[in-house]
Design goal:
With 185 residues, the protein is mostly beta strands. It is 8% helix and 40% strand. It is built from one helix and 16 strands. 33% of the residues are buried. This is Cyanovirin-N domain-containing protein.
Length: 185
């Protein structure tokens, strides 16, 4: 019976995080700064008030916005509800891109935790997303930027072209008892 209780608690927390995401994207014309001296404009905004039904790639249709990959939220995600101070630690020469955040645990404590993004994200024809790994092999880590939970990175599309990919980690990462994990896909 102890094993059932142990499995049930994380699954219950995952279930609770299901009601936070959405896949609606609007245009945001504010500039964001990634802390490396370059600024980016027109980050797509995501409205988390509605639950997406399936994986889609969105484009607002004008030239100063980019596509954003949104993931289904029917299993897990929503780490930003219980984490703050979200940022990246990147070492491009070694192919390292760590998501770093201060996350709460059920007992009320908090701690700074990290998650290696290269272990759960893949490059899918120029767009980073779940169900893969080693996106750093074909994406330019020296140009990665973060705004809230969204990351932007240029990636090879497999046809010799570079695509600027924007994806929201809130759909793919969960806080489970104060640790960050990729959602199973």
């Amino acid at each position: 019976m102890a094993a059932v209780s142990f499995v049930f608690k994380p699954l219950f927390l995952v279930f609770l995080s299901l009601h936070v995401a959405s896949s609606l994207v609007t245009n945001n014309t504010q500039s964001e700064h990634n802390g490396t001296g370059s600024s980016h404009s027109a980050w797509p905004e995501i409205d988390y008030s509605q639950k997406p039904q399936f994986l889609e790639i969105f484009s607002t249709g004008d030239s100063n916005t980019e596509e954003i990959t949104a993931w289904p939220q029917d299993v897990c995600g929503g780490f930003s509800l219980s984490c703050s101070g979200i940022h990246l630690h990147v070492v491009p020469n070694y192919g390292i891109a760590m998501l770093v955040a201060t996350c709460s645990s059920p007992g009320g404590g908090t701690g700074t935790v990290q998650l290696e993004l290269n272990n759960g994200l893949g490059n899918h024809n120029g767009h980073i997303g779940p169900a893969g790994s080693d996106f750093a092999q074909s994406c330019d880590l020296s140009s990665i930027a973060i705004s809230g939970t969204r990351i932007r990175i240029p990636c090879d599309d497999g046809k010799g072209e570079t695509q600027s990919s924007v994806t929201d980690l809130n759909y793919a990462v969960m806080n489970d008892y104060g640790s960050l994990f990729f959602c199973p896909r």
